Amino acid sequence: MALIFHSSIKRDDWWRAEMAKHVPDLEMRFHPDVGNPDDIEFALCFNMPEGELARFKNLKAIFSLGAGVDHFFKDPTFPKHVPLARVVDDELSARMTEYVVQHVLNHHRDQLTYDHQQRQKVWKVHHPPAATARKVGILGLGALGNHAAKTLASLGFQVSGWSRSKKEIPSVKSYAGAGELDQFLSEVEILVCLLPLTEETEGILNADLFAKLPEGASLINPGRGPHLVEEDLIKALDSGHMSCATLDVFRTEPLPEDSPLWSHEKIRITPHVASIAAPNRVAALVAQNIIRARNGEKLLNQVDVDRGY
Ligand code: NDP
Ligand code: OXD
What we know:
This protein folds into two domains: about 1-90 and about 275-295, 3-Layer(aba) Sandwich (Rossmann fold); about 90-270, NAD(P)-binding Rossmann-like Domain (Rossmann fold). It has helices at about 10-20, 70-75, 90-110, 110-120, 145-155, 180-185, 205-210, 230-240, 280-295; strands spanning about 1-5, 25-30, 40-45, 60-65, 85, 135-140, 160-165, 170-175, 190-195, 215-220, 240-245, 265-270. It is α/β, with parallel strands linked by helices. The strands form two sheets. A seven-stranded parallel sheet has the order 8-7-6-9-10-11-12. The model has no long low-confidence stretch (mean pLDDT about 95). NADPH dihydro-nicotinamide-adenine-dinucleotide phosphate (NDP) binds near residues 66, 141, 194, 198 and 224.
């Protein structure tokens, strides 16, 4: 029996070595070299081409190579009856927090303005408030949002978060559900999106939401591209209602060359790198779940397929 692997980030040798440390008896096959599809017992993948997973009739479990699982649900033939697990890992959370803190500090300390000033050789001082007077809001207080929120609070920021269910996180104000979204937004100067992409959250970063943020607010989106209505962001930036944005994820990846986002002076772009699951961390998790799946036990970090995250 074998595991089929697929990723657009080419680190196959590293994956092979790490998986061999933890499950030496498991044959790893790298998509598209599937061999006999009936041999495939497990799948470890991100953005597997549509229709592929449905070919493996003997699948016991599917493992996402990342925290997000929306990439599976784009495929209408995705085998929903097979248990699906995602990555929840302290290092993945810590790396995401690095990204969030890096860009919150850039927004907080007007770095984009200084970058423009440098290009124009302008020496002009701006006076941002202290972190204790800066309000940062996080959409999504799950494995990643929770970690980032605590770290930002430890730096002194006024941190709030919005999720489906109420949270108890020291020094973080928790808002929950559609009924509390407007109140949350009205108090946010730097908005970070760490929601999963589901039917409910697609397009949530739109003109209506931006209008509810205070004048001068900014956005950091390492969630998913389809959370954002790109044209609405451009309008909010051009009108001056919003000050700047940092985007890591996009509706189409790689971001097409003709996208207006590339050259917008108030937008910073990174190529979906906020936090990438490391083979040495994920292989150990997958190995535990392989044992569980073979014993017919519930997987660690098993996804609620009906809820979509
Ligand atoms: P989790 O599932 O742990 O957390 C999701 C959070 O979003 C939860 O707090 C959940 O609420 C909340 N949520 C979900 N749906 C709604 C809704 N309709 N209304 C309000 N709140 C909602 O996910 P992670 O923190 O592990 O990951 C979040 C996302 O980050 C991933 O799905 C992925 O898209 C993105 N990501 C991006 C990476 C990158 O490199 N750019 C890397 C890794 C992840 P509740 O707690 O109440 O269930
Ligand atoms: C993830 C990602 O979901 O890298 O882990 O986007």
